[in-house]
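Predict structure. Chain length: 403.
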Amino acid sequence: MAARAVVVVAAGSGTRLGLGTAKAFVPVAGERMLVRALRTVLTLAEPTLVVVVAPADRMDECRALVADVAGAASGYVTVVPGGADRHASVQAGLAVLPDSVETVLVHDAARCLTPASQFERVFAAVGSGDAVESGDAVAGGVGVVPALPVTDTVKRVAGDVVVETVDRSALVGVQTPQGFPLAALRRAYAVAERAATDDAGVFQAAGGVVRTVPGDADAFKVTTRWDLGRAEAVVAERAGARSVDARVDVRVGLGVDVHAFDPDVPCRVGMLDFPGEPGLSGHSDGDAVAHAVCDALLSAGGLGDIGGRFGTSDPRFAGASGDVFVRGAVELLRDAGLEPVRVTVQVIGNRPRIGARRDEMQDALAAAVGAPVAVSGTTTDGLGFTGRGEGLTAIATALVRSR
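Prediction complete.
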């Protein structure tokens, strides 16, 4: 069973949109908001339970729609009726999740263009948070919200009179998905009043600590008809860029990494531990596979290489896991307006044997890359340093495209 989940809140009436139907069922460029939101969630590399909170009077329609979108992954998706307000709807979604789920993200279907990278960013940040003690209660970890800096000048007013200019440097606009440890969020909702306007407010009111990660401009909420037009324009722009400029926007990179064996350090290859095997020497954890993936991503984006971006002279990367470098490369790609599409890795060496753990390795790498990763292994029939069992080589190719 998956240890993480996303609750997609789709029970809103859409009154401000003024189209006479539930907002999540309004089409954006021919495809309903809920369909677009679900399709993104279902591209996540790591298995994720999904709960769709639907309007109570449209349950059959919603179940049919969800089954069609989810396809083979339908077993991971549940549809439940929403409540009288968003607070009750979120509680309904949280209630059906199994206790084995550790991390839950709550997402508004009306933010239907939110990229998959934003979900992965929030999942990663919640997973890295420690238990935080607040007053007499332990929040059981941190809450995480994606946020964008406020760029407009902000005024505090009384009626139509400007009272003061507010320092915007300490202000952000928050988006969804918002992520939390499931047990802690359930406790927060159980004691919360309905004054909070988002899940982070509920969590914070119960003593939890909330932190931010970078948001994305495309994760805006469709609330008015102007927003709907904006969303349709974004979809049209994406479609045009990919159809007209596909050859220009798709880029390929190559990464190669070689490490000698060191029996005195733990063995970590492809973000997996191999107990009993000799480790790989290096400034960090020596994970040649993760390092080759990092180099391939950077190469595809024209962003240099792992040595230039995460050099051995930087003490922050001493002993760092391969996950740090791969996620760092993905963030650099994002800053350059690019996103990974697919990565392949060839592992060359006699040991460790990766065949039995190939799927596990692919899943671990894909979770960091945010796109599918294929792993294969081979030997050199006793030739060269890998054939003599002196070390390991990894060769990776990465395909990236404009976001």
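Summary: The chain is about 35% helix and 30% strand.
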